[in-house]
């Protein structure tokens, strides 16, 4: 009866759980899936049909090599070129005598290097320094810079001296904004064609966007937010921020297509779409931009140059202003980045604002009231800029947020004591370690303390393959950070 109850409880609590199947069936299914993905077991012979060396179009191969290099970075060295050449030859199934194979790789590398442009003049530059680029990279950055500069030109004489005092409706109806946020909203609701807003995490950028959306909606305008993630589809909408799609998704809707090699093309209405296989009919109903809209790029520091160039082209065609919001101290773009730096240099000073007040952190005062933790907020800003790291470290130690231990054993004892006490009090706590060995050692130490105070049953236990004992009341185990 107990087994029956257990089975019923498992079925009710985990209705989507896969029904257990024999291990042989699972192994056969996994092997079949791997086979469909192209995997071949190393003991199984497969037919190899190598491509003749003479069939390779060397100039076209060099084009692919340069496109791949440019998709990943703006500068490279001869070793980077040779690496891409070797990957291309392997992908093309080129099999030849060693001498012929080496000559082909060296020839393609030399051809590619001849078509590169040096970033530094003069002799004596070490070969490992990435001092080479391509003309297409320079042209793309020049076009991007020109588009940003054109948007930075004031639309009216004297607009650069515009008053950034927040509109009265902001201070009356949106009292949650601080002065910096309200100033940003005033600029976003203005007529500038290029706006750059920077700020640390927790500075209230999302709150600022909500306020700007409300103000623009009152004027019959829309706030269209896209993020810089390199996804070709819209992200799932979240209730706590404006509806957001990716920048890649928006330019895809407007006809831009790109390949894994880094080549970008654009479709016109009526052309065959190589991605969907259908006929491209233009932007979908969910992706139109109307004149008067404000296009906001969130997390703009992660925007790569190719996507930014396409996005600005679409914005120019639709005649909409663009606002880039991000933080140059955070994670940079994958590939050729620097878009936020280019925009910050091009933007009019009055349209380049920084949110300097962090609102995210709170603390409980002596009266038990939750209040803003401005001290820690200031410390996070100092950590962000790298200002006086010694003083920041001392302040964190004084606040008890960094604790030093004499040796690994003392660290384990302290962590185990904290984790066991928190679990006994019903308080959730997360402990992260570096290795599996540390996790096993810490779990055992926590368990020992809980057994000693009677919180965990050490009589009726189950022993895992790793030798860990699990009894009634055992807490979730610590794990490694991967």
Question: Would you spell out the secondary-structure blueprint of this structure?
Answer:
Layout: H1 2-13, H2 23-36, H3 58-72, H4 78-91, H5 98-114, E1 117-118, E2 132-133, H6 135-152, H7 168-173, H8 179-188, E3 194-199, H9 205-218, E4 223-227, E5 244-246, H10 247-253, E6 256-258, E7 264-266, E8 294-298, H11 305-318, E9 322-326, H12 339-346, E10 352-355, E11 362-364, E12 370-372, H13 374-385, H14 389-398, H15 408-424, E13 432-433, H16 436-452, E14 461-463, E15 469-471, E16 479-480
Parallel strand pairs: 3-9, 3-10, 4-5, 4-8, 8-9, 13-16
Antiparallel strand pairs: 1-2, 6-7, 11-12, 14-15
Helix pairs in contact: 3-4, 3-5, 4-5, 6-11, 6-12, 8-9, 10-11, 15-16
Structure description:
The radius of gyration is 29 Å and the shape is globular. It starts with a helix and ends with a strand. The protein is built from 16 helices and 16 strands. It folds into 5 domains: 2-36, no CATH class; 53-136; 138-355, 3-Layer(aba) Sandwich (Rossmann fold); 362-398, no CATH class; 408-480, no CATH class. The protein has helices spanning 2-13, 23-36, 58-72, 78-91, 98-114, 135-152, 168-173, 179-188, 205-218, 247-253, 305-318, 339-346, 374-385, 389-398, 408-424, 436-452; strands at residues 117-118, 132-133, 194-199, 223-227, 244-246, 256-258, 264-266, 294-298, 322-326, 352-355, 362-364, 370-372, 432-433, 461-463, 469-471, 479-480. The longest helix is centred in the N-terminal third of the chain and has 18 residues, at 135-152. By secondary structure, it is an alpha/beta fold. Strand 6 and strand 7 (264-266) form a beta hairpin.
């Amino acid at each position: 009866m107990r087994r029956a109850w257990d089975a019923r409880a498992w079925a009710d609590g985990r209705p989507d759980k896969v029904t257990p199947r024999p291990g042989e069936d699972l192994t056969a299914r996994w092997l079949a899936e791997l086979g469909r993905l192209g995997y071949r077991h190393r003991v199984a012979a497969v037919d190899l049909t190598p491509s003749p060396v003479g069939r390779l179009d060397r100039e076209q191969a060099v084009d692919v090599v340069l496109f791949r290099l440019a998709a990943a970075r703006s500068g490279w060295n001869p070793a980077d070129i040779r690496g891409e050449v070797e990957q291309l030859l392997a992908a093309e199934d080129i099999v030849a005598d060693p001498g012929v194979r080496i000559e082909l790789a060296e020839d393609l590398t030399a051809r590619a290097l001849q078509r590169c442009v040096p970033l530094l003049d003069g002799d004596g530059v070490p070969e490992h320094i990435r001092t080479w680029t391509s003309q297409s990279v320079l042209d793309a950055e020049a076009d991007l810079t020109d588009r940003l500069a054109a948007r930075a030109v004031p639309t009216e004489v004297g607009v650069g001296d515009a008053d950034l005092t927040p509109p009265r409706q902001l201070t009356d109806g949106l009292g949650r904004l601080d002065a910096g946020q309200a100033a940003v909203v005033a600029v976003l609701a203005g007529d500038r064609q290029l706006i750059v807003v920077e700020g640390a995490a927790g500075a209230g950028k999302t709150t600022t966007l909500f306020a700007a959306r409300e103000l623009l909606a009152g004027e019959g305008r829309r706030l269209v937010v896209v993020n810089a993630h390199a996804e070709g589809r819209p992200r799932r909408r979240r209730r706590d921020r404006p509806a957001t799609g990716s920048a890649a998704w928006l330019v895809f809707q407007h006809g831009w297509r790109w390949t894994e090699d880094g080549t970008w093309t654009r479709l016109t209405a009526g052309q065959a779409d190589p991605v969907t296989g259908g006929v491209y009919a233009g932007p979908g109903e969910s992706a139109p931009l109307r004149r008067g809209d404000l296009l906001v790029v969130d997390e703009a520091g992660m925007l790569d140059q190719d996507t930014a160039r396409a996005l600005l082209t679409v914005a120019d065609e639709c005649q909409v202003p663009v606002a880039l919001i991000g933080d140059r101290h955070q994670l940079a773009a994958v590939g050729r980045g620097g878009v936020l730096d280019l925009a910050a240099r091009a933007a009019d000073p009055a349209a380049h604002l920084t949110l300097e007040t962090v609102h995210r952190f709170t603390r409980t005062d002596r009266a038990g009231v939750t209040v803003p933790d401005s001290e820690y907020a200031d410390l996070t800003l100092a950590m962000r800029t790298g200002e006086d790291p010694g003083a920041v470290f001392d302040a964190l130690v004084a606040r008890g947020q960094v604790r030093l231990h004499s040796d690994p054993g003392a660290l384990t004892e302290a962590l185990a004591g904290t984790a066991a006490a928190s679990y006994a009090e019903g308080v959730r706590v997360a402990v992260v370690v570096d290795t599996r060995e540390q996790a096993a050692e810490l779990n055992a130490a926590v368990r020992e303390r809980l057994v000693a105070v009677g919180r965990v049953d050490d009589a009726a236990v189950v022993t895992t393959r790793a030798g860990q004992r699990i009894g009634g009341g055992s807490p979730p185990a610590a794990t490694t950070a991967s």
